[in-house]
Specification:
Number of strands: 0
Strand content: under 5%
Helix content: 55-70%
Shape: elongated
Low-confidence stretches: 222-247
Number of domains: 1
Radius of gyration: 27 Å
Order of helices and strands: HHHHHHHHHHH
């Protein structure tokens, strides 16, 4: 009896090794999947189609334990971070700058959009059955359309607060405003399930807008008391917008360029990591079915 049991174990181990040593597994799918290094899409069109269609619905019957890494929870975390970040930008603008009608309208619309996306996702996590609206918004193109709006809200809120008069009262408001806009660029690294080719160009556009504001001398120094009585730009308006201090003028440009490089790098690596996880899940399910067939 013991000999039969040992023989059965040996046969099982041999069959398992034959399955594991299959040629299709030699590509090391956990670290080197077939991903186009430029577009970051899967080279297999059917796999790319499945990724776009089913990635956010990966909580299928194959998943036995629900974890925080699932798209349902990670998506909710992204939206919560987005709401918090947007409210912080709004608060900073309200406390430090003189608000006007355009900024108020942008903020109200932004708050409505944020909570219109947040509440269904909270219900989707709390309820046992997913909400149809959330499933619709989670598909590839609606998800990216909503992502364009939500990821851009902090930058739009910051730019809508801009006016030359906001810098006339206190010094260093120019530096604070530049830092606030630069900080909003980091928000484009949020929403990890969105394509990096959508988020990174949006961040670049937002950074270029600030560079244009700095470079074209948007807020020149006014003259007081006639043409012979010109007040220094360092006293009236921020030096960074006046453009009379080359070092101060170049520092924000360097900061923005380096930050944009970081945003491009992070978005690329985040998308690659998510695609690696998805590819690993697909291959794991396939391998499990092969092993079951071999054993049977």
């Amino acid at each position: 009896m013991a000999q039969r049991t040992a023989t059965a174990h040996d046969d099982f181990d041999r069959q398992l090794l034959e399955c594991i040593n299959d040629e299709s597994l030699a590509h090391d799918y956990l670290y080197n999947p077939k991903i186009n290094q430029c577009t970051l899409t899967f080279t297999k069109s059917n796999l790319e189609a499945e990724y776009r269609k089913n990635y956010t619905s990966s909580e299928s019957s194959d998943v036995t334990h629900l974890t925080l890494a699932l798209p349902r929870y990670s998506g909710l975390a992204d939206v919560i971070v987005s709401c918090f970040f947007f409210l912080m930008v709004v608060l900073c603008c309200f406390v430090n700058f003189s608000v006007h009608t355009t900024w108020v309208v942008v903020c109200v619309v932004g708050v409505v959009i944020e909570f219109a996306i947040l509440l269904p996702m909270i219900f989707n996590v709390c309820l046992s059955r997913p909400i149809a609206l959330v499933n619709t918004l989670s598909s590839w193109y609606p998800r990216h359309l909503c992502g364009v709006i939500v990821t851009s809200l902090p930058s739009v809120a910051a730019y809508s607060a801009f006016s030359c008069s906001m810098f006339a009262d206190y010094m260093s408001r120019d530096k604070f405003y530049c830092l606030l806009v630069i900080t909003t660029l980091l928000h484009y690294c949020n929403f990890t399930m969105l394509s990096s080719w959508m988020k990174s160009p949006l961040a670049t556009v937002a950074g270029i807008v600030l560079l244009v504001i700095i470079a074209v001398d948007t807020c020149p120094s006014p003259q007081l008391g006639g043409p012979d009585n010109i007040t220094s730009s360092a006293m009236l308006y921020p030096q960074i917008f006046a453009g009379e201090q080359p070092l101060l003028w170049k520092l924000p440009i360097l900061d923005i360029m380096l930050l944009l490089l970081l945003v491009w790098f992070l978005n690329r690596e985040i998308e690659i990591s998510y695609r690696l996880c998805y590819h690993g899940d697909v291959e794991a399910v396939s391998d499990r079915k092969k092993i079951q067939v071999c054993v049977i």
